[in-house]
Design brief:
heterodimer, A: alpha+beta, Sulfite Reductase Hemoprotein, domain 2, five-stranded antiparallel beta sheet, B: 8 strands, UCP030820 (chain B)
Chain lengths: 553, 165
């Protein structure tokens, strides 16, 4: 993990002092609501339906156990005892008091954490694959590049008042998109050419009201020029992005309006001026950053499939099932990555309590070199677990309720906080997720169905990433009543793809029966080894449409 | 005479900024130091040249700094107008004037200019600030000294932190 230097700590100290003073001036009436709004947003603070919501930054999803305990402390002392893992790998608290926020930020700063730029029209938290540094297929660890981008983006003076929010993701796995770079404002794909690291840079992807897949702007940007190229894109966007209509203000609208060619031409012109200038990265800096993400001290004697593991797999059916869903192969022999699903039925997807933060911290210390990760699917990962310890870890997780063996299955639902918390939402998300989880409560059946991404967003802002769910559910408001629109065929797995609308939206009570009918059709139509998405892509949307609306006439 | 912040200090300042509508209605005043919008700057060159006072230009969001590139050498100051503090285009304009055109005169932020934006503004090249009239300029002055640490290079020191260590 990146380790803070004196200047990083100094910066956070000064930030806390700044925000404390801004909060004081706001409460004293010296700053208007409108003036305070972007200041608090750029510190992750929303004024929500019932209380403020504070979004804490988890850079590219990495947390150490000390930080986890601090999150637990915040949940306990300043919230109602829980936090929430968001689809951008951050941690949100739904109940802090506005006047406590400076103290919360000071507490976070003690463990090298903050809420900088987790909201507002600025460059947001940089994200990547939750299995960064673990996946044998990745061509190099993306996290040093994420940290380089994070520092460039932090308090970048030119890009603090952009037309709209701006999200950057980095992917290092070829021919797959685990970091969803295709639906980010900028997607950075690490590529190697003749042994040299470089980047294919996409721009103009995004979800929201008008989902789009990003276009390649820079085909191969050699590593020293990464920041100059990003800055060039941001400058073009800052100058020419739409500021009249917030629904047309994302960079995707600009790329589309100008056309890729023109956008590239403007970017290249800016880039040409900065190329080889002071922003050029140095080999020393890249090596220094790589040093922060070196391998943990693995036990080199550990081997794959040790007896302790194979014995437990043979004798314990529940462990066996969990192993096959929630445990993932590791590039290091003898190790595995474990997903803790925060998706137990009856729990809002992604919610985690104060004591659970502490428990995960303890497990991270015991089993995974003191580190854990948050994922864009609202789960957590212990990334470096020795395979002969998987059974004892599973027992501990099972006792905590984190071993629901549904990782990537239908009930591993991604959902935004929705109308229960969020003032932007048109409809509730969490009760829909729960109703689906209650309906599909037969684990054997779920495992038989296999991998199926189901995503729920409570409004067009698409925080639940509904466009990229194999099944997407979007809450809409019709004359004050909550309805749900269903999309099929979205993908955020191997490739990124936007789902297609099934048809007219459904009443709240119809959502579960409709999902059940869609699943039934898949089961009837599937060929051996076909997942839901495979069957869908083979037979198309029409049969699903017919089935979904069959009894709604 | 109204006060502005310039180079970190509060000074008296005599420049008067007029809108295109004001100029259309009342014409260009013959004397005094005047700041005019880009549209007037471009369309009334002769009238501007005939004035006894100094005249300079104000860039508003949507204007292109390139349009005044050839004039910069003779300008003591360029104003950049913020109709609302949340419109960040002016930050790129100031940066462009400094780094692309190497403009070394005064760049003044005018309009909805407030304490909490000044730190970023000075980093992209503004060295003068006309604080919104209803705000205390002495209070705003504190906005220039928020952080002692920066990651990126800026117009004062173009080196990012990894070249300063």
């Amino acid at each position: 993990m990146y380790v803070y230097q004196d200047y990083d700590r100094q910066l956070l100290t000064e930030r806390v002092a700044q925000f404390r003073d801004q909060t004081r001036r706001f409460l004293a009436g010296e700053l208007t609501d409108e003036e305070f709004l972007p200041l608090r947003l750029q510190n992750g603070l929303y004024i929500q339906r019932y209380a403020p919501m504070l979004r804490v930054s988890v850079p590219y999803g990495m947390l150490n156990s000390t930080q986890l305990r601090t999150l637990g402390h915040i949940a306990r002392h300043w919230d109602k005892g829980y936090g929430h893992v968001s689809t951008r790998q951050n941690v949100q608290f739904n109940w802090p008091a506005l006047e406590d926020v400076p103290d919360i930020l000071a507490k976070l700063a003690e463990v090298e954490m903050h809420a900088i730029q987790t909201s507002g029209n600025c460059i947001r938290n940089v994200t990547t694959d939750e299995f960064a540094g673990i996946d044998a297929a990745e061509i190099e660890d993306p996290r040093p590049w994420c940290e380089i981008i994070r520092q460039w983006a932090t308090f970048n003076p030119e890009f603090a008042y952009l037309p709209r929010k701006f999200k950057i993701a980095v992917n290092a796995v070829p021919a797959k998109d685990p970091a969803l770079i295709g639906v980010h404002d900028i997607g950075v794909q690490i590529v190697h050419r003749e042994g040299e690291t470089g980047f294919a840079i996409l721009a103009g992807g995004g979800l929201g009201r008008t989902p789009m897949i990003g276009e390649v702007i820079g085909e191969f940007v050699a590593w020293p020029h990464l920041l100059s190229y990003l800055e060039a894109i941001l400058r073009v966007y800052n100058k020419y992005g739409n500021r009249d209509n917030k629904y047309k203000a994302r960079i995707k609208t600009l790329v589309k309006a100008l056309g890729v060619e023109k956008f590239r031409e403007l970017t290249e012109a800016e880039f040409a001026e900065m190329k080889d200038g002071p922003m050029t990265l140095t080999a020393e800096e890249v090596e220094r950053m790589r040093g922060f993400f070196s391998e943990p001290p693995y036990d080199t004697k550990a081997t794959d499939q040790p007896t302790a593991l194979t014995d437990a797999l043979g004798s314990n059916k529940a462990f066996n099932r969990w192993y096959h869903t929630n445990v993932r192969a590791h590039r290091q022999p003898g190790y595995a990555a474990v997903t803790l699903t925060l998706k137990k039925t009856g729990r809002a997807p992604g919610d985690i309590t104060d004591d659970e933060f502490d428990a995960v911290a303890d497990l991270a210390d015991q089993y995974s070199f003191g580190e854990a990760r948050t994922t864009h699917q609202q789960n957590m990962v212990l990334g470096d677990v020795r395979q002969d310890q998987l059974f004892s870890l599973w027992q501990a997780l099972d006792a905590l309720g984190f071993a629901t063996p549904n990782f990537k299955l239908l009930t591993d639902i991604v959902a935004c906080p929705g109308g229960d918390f969020c003032s932007l939402a048109n409809a509730k998300s969490i009760p829909i997720a729960e109703a689906i989880q209650r309906h599909f409560d037969d684990m054997d059946y779920l495992h038989d169905l296999g991998e199926l991404d189901l995503n729920i967003s409570g409004c067009m802002n698409a925080c639940g990433h509904h466009h990229i769910g194999h099944i997407g559910i979007l809450g809409v408001d019709k004359k004050g009543r909550e309805y749900y629109q269903i999309t099929l065929g979205g993908r955020g797995d191997k490739v990124t793809q936007i789902g297609e609308k099934l048809g007219p939206s459904f009443d709240t009570d119809d959502v579960v029966p409709v999902i059940a009918r869609l699943i039934d059709l898949y089961v009837e139509q599937r060929r051996p080894d076909e997942l839901f998405i495979d069957t869908y892509e083979r037979i198309g949307i029409e049969p699903f449409k017919e089935r979904a609306y069959a009894s709604n006439n | 005479m109204p006060a502005i912040i310039k180079d970190g200090a509060i000074i008296e300042d005599g420049w008067v900024r007029l809108t295109a509508e004001q100029i259309e209605q009342d014409g260009l005043p013959a004397d005094g130091d005047l700041i005019v919008p880009l549209s007037v700057w471009k369309s009334q060159r002769e009238a501007i040249a005939a004035r006894s006072g100094r005249t300079t230009v104000c860039l508003a969001p949507g204007d292109e700094p390139a349009e005044i590139a050839d004039d910069l050498a003779g300008l003591p100051l360029v104003a950049v107008y913020f109709p609302a503090f949340r419109d960040g285009r002016g930050y790129s304009y100031a940066r462009e004037l400094r780094t692309r055109y190497h403009y070394e005169g005064e760049i003044r932020a005018v309009g909805d200019v407030l304490r909490d934006q000044l730190f970023y503004m000075q980093r992209v090249g503004f060295n003068a600030f006309q604080i919104r009239a209803d705000r205390d300029i002495h209070d705003a002055l504190q906005g220039l000294k928020v952080f002692s640490v920066t990651y990126q290079g800026d117009v004062k020191d173009p080196r990012p932190i990894y070249r300063r260590r």
